[in-house]
What does this fold into?
Amino acid sequence: MEEYRRESGTSNVRTFIAVPVTGPAVEAMGSMVGDMKQAGAAVKWVEPRNMHLTLKFMGDLPRARIQPLADAVSRAVQGELKFEMTLQGAGAFPNLRSPRVLWAGVGAGADCLGRLARCIDESTVAAGFPPADKPFRPHLTIGRARGDSAGALAADIISRNSNAYWGLVAVDGIHVVASVLTPSGPVYTSLARISLQ
It folds into this structure.
C-alpha cells in the first residue's frame, strides 16, 4: 500500500474510496454522451479523467484521519484478487421520469464490487468512521442534469442505451481520493492506492 501523501495545512479533506475507471469502455460511452449534447440536454458531465466508481463516500475528514482510513481500507481488501467488471447499460437516479444523476451500469463484477464495498464499510466503521449513508449500488456517474428539461431530453437517450455494452474495466486497486471543488469542476487527487492481489 502506498503511504498517505501528506500535504501541508490543517483543513479537512473531502474524501471518498473508489475504483478509477479508464480506458476503451469510457471512450465507448462518448457516443451516448455526444447524443445527449447534440439533443441539447443541459448536463454537467463528469470528465473522462475523473471517472470513478465510488465504494464509499467519507465526507470531510481531518487530515490526521487519512492514514487510519487508508489502513482500514488495506485491511478490508487484504487477500482480494484483481478482477474485471463490465460497464453496460445506462440509467438515472432517482428514475427516468425525473432523472438527476445519469449513470452507466455494471454487469459482470458487480458482486465483487458489492463485497469490496461491504468489507470496506465494516473495516472503516471498526476503525471509528461513520457507516455508509446509503446502500451500495454499483454504477458509474457520467453526469448530473441541470433542470427538468435537461432530464427529459436525457431520459429518451438513456432508455435507448439501457442494454448497451460499453466494455471491460480492470479492477486492480482501490484508491482513497481527495476531492477539491473548484468553479471549473472537482479536482481529484489519489492520497493512497491499495493494490489487489
About this structure: The two ends are 11 Å apart (CA to CA). The first helix runs from residue 24 to 28. The longest strand covers residues 52-62. Strands lie at 12-20, 43-45, 52-62, 83-93, 101-106, 139-145, 165-171, 173-182, 185-195.
